[in-house]
Hints:
The protein is mainly alpha-helical.
Amino acid sequence: MMKTHAPTGPVQPSPSPSASVEGVLALAQGLRQEVGSNFHDQIAEAMYHDAARIADRAVTRAGETPQATLDRTIDRLVTSRVWGFPLMILLFTLVFWLTIAGANVPSGLLAGLLIDTVYPALHAGASAVGLPWWLSGFLLDGVYLATAWVVSVMLPPMAIFFPLFTLLEDFGYLPRVAFNLDHLFKKAGAHGKQSLSMMMGFGCNAAGIIATRVIDSPRERLIAIITNNFALCNGRWPTQILIATLFIGALVPAHLAGVISALAVVGVAALGVLLTFVVSWALSRTILKGEASAFSLELPPYRPPRILQTIYTSIIDRTVFVLWRAVLFAIPAGAVIWLSANIHVGGASVAEHLVNLLHPFGLLVGLNGVILLAYIVAIPANELVIPTILMLIVLVTGASSVGEGAGVMFELDSGTGTMALFHANGWTLLTAINLMLFSLVHNPCSTTIYTTYKETGSLKWTAITALLPVVLGFGLTFAVATVWRLVAGG
């Protein structure tokens, strides 16, 4: 093996013909001869040919009939001023109907397995090994039930909704939605690219806030960040779907229940879009005044959906990720709820004191103390709202009113068990409607709040982003409750 030594002084490059000026000129002359004398003409001709081909596809000249292509035919419908929005509403209604209709059976099966079968077996095992009541209650009635409810409520609808939503994204439809909304955002004094970040917010508000980086104007980016919470994130879909199925669908015959429930969810999502425009308009004319910027939106070509890959990707990247995040938050939340329900002060549990403290204000805005406490506990993740509400009802307000003992879970489905529990604890149609509205307009989750601070670097704008939806939510639910009671006469 040859041994080498590090040089002790500056290394002098050895002269090379190719490194000299003469060598470079000689190499260029040789290459010029290889490509021929008309090389530049060929490049210019190719560029003009491509430009003409693109223009022929994109430009319709006076007196010419547009070239009929599949993309143009579809775009004439989905981006039409007449048919664009009705088709969008119809398509999303179909997605929600498939989610609602398809999630009932697997949700009931999961609840039957995890709650009706595994839960009693775990209690029997805890009794057999002599676990003290407080330890078995903490682990099973608190931690395990919260986790089981999260899985039962969230997994089936997410496993259906996310693949369908991803198929629309892969097909190329979501950019057309942004195209349809661009003009409205300009009218609201916001940037057209806010439509893109809003669509991202329907998956996750934290991701939607990060997506606002595509907006160059700091003023318009702040508007997009503050209003992104009005896009229903994936953690709020289970609440919307469950409550709509239980209360709204029950108002019509069974064969129409799925469609009406889906329309109710679409209506709430559409209200969120409307609030985005209204709040953007208000911000752009008050604390964030300025002119809206213009931008160019390129519509991608339609692509055949890759169904198997889409299903795999959406389940692994979205469903499993969101479910795992919800389970991680559900474990400590279940523990906190059980402790608050079993630590007594002055003859009542801590949770009962909190529920009773919040209940008068909750009734004023058409909700109740359980719902308000659930939203406080569920600040770490929106996915915890429904499981937290159910646990608080069972452990605090008394599931015995529907024939069950405290800590013994009912069948978690969209049937009589859950409805009996809600009705026995004073829930009405007004409670359900206002819960759906408050689920849309309330404080962001902790992840979204933290992301807002990281993106803005400002406590002021983070506080506005977190508190503005809460104020609007209470104002909206109070208005609905007031009108409802005036019309109902009580």
